[in-house]
Amino acid sequence: MFKKPICILVVLLLIPLWLSAHGVSAGDQQILDQGGLLAYLWVGAKHMVTGYDHILFLVGVIFFLKGFNDIIKFITVFTIGHSITLIGATFLGIQTNEHLVDAVIGLSVLYKGFENLGGFERVFKISSPNLLGMVFSFGLIHGLGLSTRLQSFAMSETNIFAKIVSFNVGVELGQVAALVPIIFVINRWRAWKSYDAFSKAVNSYLVIAGMGLAVFQLLQFYSLI
């Protein structure tokens, strides 16, 4: 009979498969065509909740944060980073290749899992780079990924800035909705004896998942050349 920690771990490992709706769909385009600014907010929230690459990175960021203030600080820094590039790149029409951006996002997941496992100290014999700076830098990259999704929609020029901001606000709401249960599970698990094994398993999974995401996106990129 499975113990409770094992059951929860299985659920966490299956999240990327469950969230296979990540991306742009004809249904989303129809919602935007028929709705106003609230439609952009809804699609932004949906995209973040189903954005397993973004969520996996944030899992790595918050994994060892215990205090509420620390969690807010790092999530705020990430939010500022991705808001800058999401709003700026979309408004200015700056185009980036979605597969290359998503490959870097995959590497950000790998990076965070590697750091959480003490990889810099054990492998390179150096201290980990400043976490706040890295979270902000990766936030900028994640924002470019979000911008590529938003720019893939057919948007009229009417209220274009308001639409971009609405999408961004939706992303923030989706981010909160996705993180609340994850933070609850991680904090609850700290009281169990299996926490160390859980920590190694989850962060090892981040390394594997990040590598898989990066390789998949690079293969997609080279197939287009």
Question: In brief, what are we looking at here?
Answer:
The protein is an all-alpha fold and 225 residues long. Helix content is 79%, strand content 0%.
Strand content: under 5%
Which regions have little confidence, pLDDT < 50, spanning 5+ residues? 9-21
Oligomer classification: single chain
| Cα gyration radius (Å) | 18 Å
The major sheet is characterized as:
none
**Percent range of helical residues:** over 70%
Describe this structure in words.
The structure is a single chain. With 225 residues, the protein is mainly alpha-helical. The protein has one domain (26-220). It has ten helices and no strands. It has helices spanning 4-18, 26-34, 37-49, 52-62, 68-92, 98-116, 119-124, 131-151, 160-189, 195-223. Helix 5 packs parallel to helix 8 (131-151). It is globular and about 55 Å long. The protein starts with a helix and ends with a helix. 35% of the residues are buried. Mean pLDDT is 87; it is low at 9-21.
